[in-house]
């Protein structure tokens, strides 16, 4: 009996040690898996001109963008399976994993319930945990607000056509630069100017 008890105790200790090792390494493994999603999120967005050449489609809304939407759906499914009641925070998972998780949420326009869920978790974690910068929150708030109400608060969302860049509708636009200052964003004028240069240099 004593031998059996010792064997059982040893097995229990082994299991406990294995579980503890797994639990300690879990955030690192999850972080690595999330970071590996970034190329899929940026496949078409990072360089539209180059990807159009690869895909042989001159239409931005053609096969290239359809493929990006499919990749976004896979990314959402993966992130949704990971998320429980907390966000992918910098403290727990590292800055790069937190950034990629935010990118997936930011680009979840095909699934607004998922986008809202991510925003709620980010807001709950901020600022008591270094979950993300206020800038990321501002971008996600604007993205969801544009999708739901048709206006934004921080002026992060814009349209670009024929060499002209315009912010999408802003609620109380006279207050936009005050709001932007609160989350360490540059003035709307500087942001639009730098965004225009970035687009034209792609």
The helix/strand class is mainly alpha
Span between N and C termini?
74 Å
The number of helices is 10
Unreliable stretches covering 5 or more consecutive residues: none
Strand content: under 5%
Rg, Cα atoms, Å: 22 Å
Overview of the structural elements:
The protein is mostly helical. It is built from ten helices and two strands; from the N terminus they run H-H-H-H-H-H-H-H-E-E-H-H. Strands 1-2 form a two-stranded antiparallel ribbon. Helix 6 packs parallel to helix 8 and helix 7 runs antiparallel to helix 8. The longest helix has 34 residues. The model has no long low-confidence stretch (mean pLDDT 83).
Topology:
Elements: H1 2-35, H2 38-41, H3 48-55, H4 63-82, H5 90-93, H6 95-106, H7 112-125, H8 134-149, E1 158-161, E2 164-167, H9 176-182, H10 188-200
Antiparallel strand pairs: 1-2
Helix pairs in contact: 1-6, 6-8, 7-8
Write a short abstract of this structure.
This protein is mainly alpha-helical and 202 residues long. It has helices spanning 2-35, 38-41, 48-55, 63-82, 90-93, 95-106, 112-125, 134-149, 176-182, 188-200, and strands spanning 158-161, 164-167. The chain is built from 10 helices and 2 strands, in the order ααααααααββαα.
Protein traits:
mainly alpha, two-stranded antiparallel ribbon
């Amino acid at each position: 009996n004593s031998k059996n008890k010792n064997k059982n105790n040893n097995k229990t200790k082994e299991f406990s040690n294995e579980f503890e090792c797994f639990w300690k390494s879990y955030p690192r493994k999850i972080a690595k898996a999330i970071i590996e999603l970034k190329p899929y999120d940026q496949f078409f967005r990072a360089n539209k001109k180059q990807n159009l050449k690869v895909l042989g489609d001159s239409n931005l809304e053609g096969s290239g963008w359809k493929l990006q939407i499919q990749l976004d759906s896979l990314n959402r499914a993966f992130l949704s399976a990971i998320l429980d009641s907390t966000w992918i925070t910098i403290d727990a998972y590292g800055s790069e994993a937190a950034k990629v998780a935010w990118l997936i949420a930011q680009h979840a326009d095909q699934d607004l319930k998922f986008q809202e869920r991510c925003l709620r978790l980010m807001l709950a974690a901020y600022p008591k945990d270094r979950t993300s910068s206020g800038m990321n929150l501002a971008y996600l708030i604007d993205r969801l607000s544009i999708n739901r109400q048709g206006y934004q608060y921080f002026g992060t969302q814009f349209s670009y056509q024929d060499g002209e860049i315009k912010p999408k509708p802003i609620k109380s636009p006279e207050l936009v630069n005050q709001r932007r200052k609160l989350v360490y964003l540059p003035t709307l004028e500087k942001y639009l100017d730098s965004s225009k240069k970035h687009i034209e240099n792609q």
